[in-house]
Amino acid sequence: MRIAALVTRIIQQMRRDKRTLALLFLAPLLVLSLMYFIFNSNEPVVTLVVSHVPTELIEKLDAADFEVTENNDVTIAKLKEQKYDGWLALHNNQIKLTLLNDDPTTAKAVMMKLSQVLQPEQASNMTITTDYVYGNKDTAIFDIFSPMLIGFFVFFFVFLITGIALLKERTSGTLERLLATPIKRSEIVAGYLIGYGLFAFMQTIIIVLFGIYILDIVHVGSIWLVFLINILIALVSLSLGALLSSFAASEFQMMQFIPIVIVPQVFFSGIFPLDNMAEWLQSIGHIMPLYYAADALNGVMYKGYSFNEIVVNLVILACFAIVFIMLNIISLKKYRSL
Q: For the chain, which has fewer Cβ within 10 Å, the N-terminal or C-terminal residue?
């Protein structure tokens, strides 16, 4: 009887906790559905631009499932802009292959397919040279992921620690006591963001320096841009964590936001190529802060982008932070109207 009474009490508690029930039954379905659509995306199309190449070779490339574009006026800048996987040029009985190498897996696929197509040319003593726009022949797939992982860990831990810390402020009554004073809601939000932001800033510095100088994560561009991107990521995460903490009644409920807010962003941070996904999936990725953060970090750390080349991503991240901060100020209305 005592066991039955305990089971009955637990069932009643769970029935009243709609958020936990939603997490238990709906969150796994959401994540599983995302994984299904992502892993069942279209096979990547290998694109190749060719210059001064005979028609016979172009036909062989088409037969090898390359998407071939013929252009005799190609430059490295155009290769980057159009994002071709490779550029094949024939000059003075020499074949020159230039690989974009923004994805080492695709670059290796291009090399493998071309080695089969170009075997007759190699047998006729025609020399083949290979250059890389980004990285080199030893570039590993982790070199692409590692900049994104730095941004993800900054985002995740700032979100988790800040959200739980602010939740304790509210559940302990500290926030209510502050609201009983003449202080404005905007001043409260600013104070919390600056206070916790200092620790988020220090955490960001430590993660970036550890990743670059201890783990030797690939780093081509300016380290100051890396700091700037990650500081913006921390600000977005800080303001988002503060916002969601106002909707949680306990630390457990704060943790419930992780599979709904954090996990989906992993799928759209560039770890899985968005270009191969359905258009509606790509649209979802474009409303994720980590999508822009990962794109900027990968551009700076792996491709050596300058400030002008990532400024759009930085502006979008700043807009996310501003929106979340404004929503934080609005959410305090339910505790006090000024």
A: N
Place of tokens 């620690």: 161
Q: What is the pLDDT of residues 281-293, one digit of tens each?
A: 777 778 889 889 9
CB 31 within 8 A of CB 70: no
In this prediction, residue 338 has a pLDDT band, given cuts at 50, 70 and 90, of very low
Residue 61: per-residue pLDDT = 80
**Pair 134, 106: CB distance under 8 Å:** no
Q: Return the structure tokens found at 229.
A: 């991107």
Q: Report the C-alpha gap between 1 and 48 in whole angstroms.
A: 73
Alpha-carbon torsion angle 24, 26, 31, 34, nearest 10:
170
Distance (Å, whole) CA 233 – CA 254: 20
DSSP secondary structure of 264-315: HHHHTTTSS-GGGS-HHHHHHHTT-HHHHHHHHHHHHHTT---HHHHHHHHH
DSSP string, 230-252: HHHHHHHHHHHHHHHHTT-SSHH
Model pLDDT for residues 320-329, shown as the tens digit of each residue: 999 988 888 8
Q: How far is CA 129 from CA 75, 136, 245, 246, in A?
A: 17, 13, 57, 59
Q: Are 301 and 220 in contact (CB under 8 A)?
A: yes
Residues paired with 254 in a beta bridge: none
pLDDT of residue 56: 81
The amino acid occupying position 99 is: L
Confidence of residue 121 (pLDDT cuts 50, 70, 90): low
Residues, the chain:
338
* CA-based nearest residue to 313, from 148, 170, 156, 80: 148
Alpha carbon distance 151, 56 (integer Å):
47
Question: What is the rounded CA–CA span in Å between residue 331 and residue 244?
Answer: 10
Phi, psi of 247 (to 5 degrees): -105, 0
> Helix (H, G, I), strand (E, B), or coil: what is residue 76?
helix
